[in-house]
Amino acid sequence: MDVLVTPTPKLQGELQALSSKNYTTRYLLVAALAEGTSTIYYPAHSEDSDAMRRCIRDLGAVIEEDDEKITITGFGRNPKDVKELDVGNAGAVLRFLMAIAALAPDVTFINRYPESLGKRPHDDLIDALGQIGVDVTHNDGKLPITIRGGAAKGGKIQVSGNVSSQFLSALLFLTPLLEDDSEIEVLHDLKSKVVVGQTLEVLTQAGIVIEASDDLMHYKVAGRQKYEAKKYVVQGDYPGSAAVLAAAAVTQSDVTLHRLEENSKQGERAIIDVLRMMEVPLTHEIGIVRVQGNGKLKAVEFDGDKATDAVLAMVAAAVFAEGTSRFYDVENLRYKECDRITDYLNELRKAGANVEERQSEIIVHGRPEGVEGGVEINAHYDHRVIMALTVVGLRAKQPLRIRDAHHVAKSYPIFFDHLKALGANVEWIE
Ligand SMILES: O=C(O)C1=C[C@@H](OP(=O)(O)O)[C@@H](O)[C@H](O)C1
Ligand SMILES: C=C(OP(=O)(O)O)C(=O)O
């Protein structure tokens, strides 16, 4: 299904931010790894979080859910002997469960999105699992992937953090359950380092003890630990909200978003600082963000690795800023649902933006006068490309037709409902 985004000068209203995808996937996982019954309040509902629900159920977790909460009775360190798992297009879910599959005899992760997740590399995790005796069969580092665990015992592990932090997070979820103690050393750089803070926070909440160095490059993990069954509350989602806030920033607006904690460990919280640096009028108090956009934005320079999943929304805002913006240290955007540098900038150019790419940088020459629009956008299976191009479409001169915009459901199924509620001219079309 496509979405037609028609220029919209004004946005107004109040919304509850959706629930965090990254916390939901983590809480679902640690609840599954516990032996008792955990409760998660306000879990996210999206394709990625549903993928984690489906897979932990397949692995033996017992799940009950109502409108407010989900209760999960976990399988501890003894997942069911399942032959196949389908993670949809969810990278984090795949990587976390590739590690957990080391507790099972023989699991194959199927390839349902050959053009998206099917192209993403997992070599660094495959290599790390090999170091603790896990046998992995793969298609040149990509899906389909078969994990034969059983023999995994723990020990010294080196893992590269160059491509994704998810490989390290995956090992941090697995190693406490192994027979032997483990020591994990991160090689090279650690990309998206902030997200590892969310992993450690959730592990601590689940009663797991991990000794982490201050730079997050070394870990000592005792084996034979037990995940405790707990009660968790999912906070609001900054990456998805970043797109709504960017939409408010590029229009004449008065938009309020609730449930966005000031002291959240989500790096994408930086959307607030970046919009402030761009001189967008906003306030952020007691979890409530209010943007009163006047359509005027100033260019910005920002280390995008600190807020990986909000960079596309920030770039969309910069398209209309006065001056040249630069988002640096963003190379790992190339290994996401699509190449979020080359593919994304191609779509922005089609819409009329003036953008340049470097291997690890996005440069935006702002056009405060607006962009032309009037074209069809290829979504590249990427929810964040869809949301960012929607922001651009609101301030284009002609409508943008975003092809296959239903992929927004990977993280934010009600994104267009939310924008509509604020007065945006967005319509689903066949
Ligand atoms: O651990 C996680 O839940 C995530 C880590 C990040 O990925 P990378 O570490 O690959 O950048 C982020 O982009 C992704 O959306 C979710
Ligand atoms: C990249 C993302 O997710 P994942 O890596 O889990 O597919 C995302 O949500 O933007």
Automatic annotation (TrEMBL):
GO terms for cellular component: cytoplasm. SUPFAM superfamilies: EPT/RTPC-like. Phosphoenolpyruvate binds at K21, G91, R120, Q166, R340, R384, K410. GO terms for molecular function: 3-phosphoshikimate 1-carboxyvinyltransferase activity. Pfam families: EPSP_synthase. Residues 6-419 form the Enolpyruvate transferase domain. Monomer. HAMAP family: EPSP_synth. Belongs to the EPSP synthase family. This is 3-phosphoshikimate 1-carboxyvinyltransferase. It comes from Paenibacillus montanisoli. The lineage of its organism: Bacteria, Bacillati, Bacillota, Bacilli, Bacillales. The gene is aroA.
